[in-house]
Amino acid sequence: MHFSTIFTTAAAILLTSPSLPLTTASPVGDAKLKPRQGTIGCTYTSPGGVYYAYTITVPNDKIIDATCGGGFLDNLHGRGCSITAWGCDYVNGSGARITFNADPFCGPDDVSAASNAAAQGKYPGVVCNGA
Fold first, then answer.
1. For residue 82, which of 44, 54, 63, 70 sits 20 to 30 Å off, Cα-Cα?
2. Average pLDDT over every residue of 99-127
3. Which run of H or of E encompasses 14?
4. 62-108 pLDDT, tens per residue?
5. Which long-range contacts (CB under 8 A, 24 or more apart) does 84-90 make?
6. For the CA atoms of the chain, what is the radius of gyration?
7. Is the CA virtual torsion 46, 47, 49, 50 positive or negative?
8. Which CATH fold topology does 41-130 show?
Protein backbone atom coordinates (compact mmCIF):
# COMPACT_ATOMS: atom_id res chain seq x y z
CA MET A 1 0.00 0.00 0.00
CA HIS A 2 1.25 3.47 -0.82
CA PHE A 3 1.57 6.19 1.78
CA SER A 4 -1.01 8.34 0.01
CA THR A 5 -3.58 5.54 0.21
CA ILE A 6 -2.96 5.05 3.93
CA PHE A 7 -3.13 8.80 4.56
CA THR A 8 -6.35 9.21 2.57
CA THR A 9 -8.01 6.29 4.36
CA ALA A 10 -6.98 7.57 7.81
CA ALA A 11 -8.21 11.08 7.01
CA ALA A 12 -11.57 9.74 5.80
CA ILE A 13 -12.02 7.72 9.00
CA LEU A 14 -11.16 10.64 11.24
CA LEU A 15 -13.39 13.10 9.40
CA THR A 16 -16.44 10.81 9.34
CA SER A 17 -16.16 9.42 12.86
CA PRO A 18 -19.10 10.50 15.08
CA SER A 19 -16.93 10.21 18.18
CA LEU A 20 -14.81 13.17 17.06
CA PRO A 21 -17.10 16.19 17.08
CA LEU A 22 -15.92 19.15 15.06
CA THR A 23 -16.35 22.35 17.01
CA THR A 24 -15.53 25.94 16.40
CA ALA A 25 -14.50 28.50 18.95
CA SER A 26 -17.24 30.80 20.13
CA PRO A 27 -16.60 34.54 20.02
CA VAL A 28 -15.58 36.23 23.25
CA GLY A 29 -18.13 38.96 22.83
CA ASP A 30 -17.37 42.62 23.07
CA ALA A 31 -14.08 42.28 24.95
CA LYS A 32 -12.22 45.57 25.15
CA LEU A 33 -8.46 45.67 25.43
CA LYS A 34 -7.29 47.67 28.41
CA PRO A 35 -3.91 49.38 28.60
CA ARG A 36 -1.50 47.88 31.09
CA GLN A 37 -1.23 49.81 34.30
CA GLY A 38 2.11 51.23 35.27
CA THR A 39 3.57 51.76 31.82
CA ILE A 40 5.09 54.86 30.29
CA GLY A 41 3.03 56.22 27.41
CA CYS A 42 4.48 58.21 24.52
CA THR A 43 2.66 59.88 21.64
CA TYR A 44 3.81 62.48 19.15
CA THR A 45 2.77 64.59 16.20
CA SER A 46 4.93 66.26 13.62
CA PRO A 47 3.28 69.56 12.68
CA GLY A 48 4.50 70.37 9.19
CA GLY A 49 7.54 68.13 9.63
CA VAL A 50 9.39 71.04 11.28
CA TYR A 51 9.52 69.53 14.77
CA TYR A 52 8.07 66.74 16.89
CA ALA A 53 5.52 67.54 19.61
CA TYR A 54 5.63 64.83 22.30
CA THR A 55 3.41 63.88 25.23
CA ILE A 56 4.82 61.41 27.74
CA THR A 57 2.68 59.99 30.54
CA VAL A 58 4.33 58.41 33.54
CA PRO A 59 2.29 56.51 36.15
CA ASN A 60 4.66 57.42 38.98
CA ASP A 61 7.15 60.26 38.69
CA LYS A 62 9.47 58.53 41.16
CA ILE A 63 10.13 56.09 38.33
CA ILE A 64 12.04 58.74 36.43
CA ASP A 65 13.47 60.89 39.23
CA ALA A 66 10.74 62.65 41.25
CA THR A 67 11.59 66.04 39.71
CA CYS A 68 8.80 66.06 37.14
CA GLY A 69 10.96 64.72 34.35
CA GLY A 70 14.24 66.51 35.04
CA GLY A 71 16.28 63.32 34.59
CA PHE A 72 14.37 62.53 31.43
CA LEU A 73 15.19 66.00 30.06
CA ASP A 74 18.88 65.42 30.88
CA ASN A 75 18.76 62.14 28.93
CA LEU A 76 17.19 63.89 25.94
CA HIS A 77 19.96 66.49 25.97
CA GLY A 78 22.50 63.68 26.29
CA ARG A 79 21.14 62.21 23.04
CA GLY A 80 21.71 65.56 21.30
CA CYS A 81 18.06 66.60 21.27
CA SER A 82 17.18 70.27 21.17
CA ILE A 83 14.10 70.66 23.39
CA THR A 84 11.70 73.61 23.57
CA ALA A 85 8.32 74.28 25.22
CA TRP A 86 9.07 71.88 28.11
CA GLY A 87 6.11 71.32 30.38
CA CYS A 88 5.43 68.90 33.19
CA ASP A 89 2.31 68.53 35.28
CA TYR A 90 1.63 66.14 38.11
CA VAL A 91 -1.49 64.06 37.54
CA ASN A 92 -3.34 61.47 39.61
CA GLY A 93 -1.30 62.18 42.73
CA SER A 94 2.07 60.74 41.77
CA GLY A 95 1.97 60.51 37.96
CA ALA A 96 3.26 63.06 35.50
CA ARG A 97 2.37 64.33 32.03
CA ILE A 98 5.39 65.72 30.19
CA THR A 99 5.02 67.75 27.00
CA PHE A 100 7.74 69.20 24.82
CA ASN A 101 8.85 69.96 21.29
CA ALA A 102 11.98 68.41 19.80
CA ASP A 103 13.99 69.19 16.70
CA PRO A 104 13.40 66.92 13.67
CA PHE A 105 16.67 65.09 14.37
CA CYS A 106 15.35 63.94 17.76
CA GLY A 107 13.03 61.20 16.62
CA PRO A 108 10.74 58.80 18.45
CA ASP A 109 13.56 56.28 18.91
CA ASP A 110 15.63 58.91 20.75
CA VAL A 111 12.72 59.77 23.03
CA SER A 112 12.04 56.08 23.71
CA ALA A 113 15.68 55.48 24.59
CA ALA A 114 15.79 58.55 26.86
CA SER A 115 12.62 57.50 28.71
CA ASN A 116 13.91 53.94 29.11
CA ALA A 117 17.17 55.28 30.54
CA ALA A 118 15.34 57.68 32.87
CA ALA A 119 13.20 54.81 34.16
CA GLN A 120 16.45 52.90 34.87
CA GLY A 121 15.19 49.82 33.06
CA LYS A 122 12.00 49.50 35.15
CA TYR A 123 9.85 49.96 32.04
CA PRO A 124 11.86 48.77 29.04
CA GLY A 125 10.32 48.83 25.61
CA VAL A 126 8.71 52.27 25.72
CA VAL A 127 7.44 52.95 22.21
CA CYS A 128 6.42 56.37 20.95
CA ASN A 129 3.37 56.21 18.71
CA GLY A 130 2.39 58.83 16.17
CA ALA A 131 -0.98 60.36 16.94
1. 63
2. 86
3. helix 3-16
4. 655 557 777 888 999 999 999 999 998 888 777 788 999 999 999 99
5. 84/51, 90/61
6. 26
7. negative
8. Alpha-Beta Plaits (3.30.70)
